[in-house]
Write a structure and sequence with these properties.
Serine Threonine Protein Phosphatase 5, Tetratricopeptide repeat; single chain; mainly alpha
Length: 125
């Protein structure tokens, strides 16, 4: 995560290689605080930082397919919008943003990630 925050996508991908065999592992004590696929979500973020939009989409789709009640699952619907935008696929980006905004339709409109997502979506219109 530190490498991602420093915009070092390729370095973070290298560091995440060690977690690839354990992505579904989750000790019982951490089930409600850190569900499985957290490394997968981080890998998607790293691919975004590395400019690899299509690879990022694949990672976020893995997370959103699990349907567990955790913030990463709903954020995994937002990230493909960003990845498709990066990859130049505006139609798929709009659909991904619409899915995210539908999930968050009842959220507090002042939440920063929601405000940012709405602004990004507006640029695609």
């Amino acid at each position: 995560m530190l490498a991602i925050n420093r915009n070092e996508g390729k370095q973070s991908l290298k560091l995440l290689e060690a977690a690839s065999g354990y992505e579904l592992a989750c000790p019982a004590a951490f089930v409600y605080t850190q569900p499985p696929l957290y490394p997968t979500y981080l890998r998607g973020q790293a691919y975004l930082k590395a400019g690899e939009g299509q690879l990022a989409v694949a990672e976020f789709q893995k997370v959103s397919a699990f349907h567990y009640s955790y913030p990463l699952e709903s954020l995994a619907h937002l990230q493909p919008g960003r990845a498709y935008t990066m990859a130049g696929d505006a139609a798929k980006a709009r659909t991904a943003y619409q899915d995210f905004l539908t999930l968050w339709k009842d959220a507090d409109p002042g939440i920063p990630v929601l405000k940012q997502a709405k602004a990004e979506y507006a640029k695609l219109q």
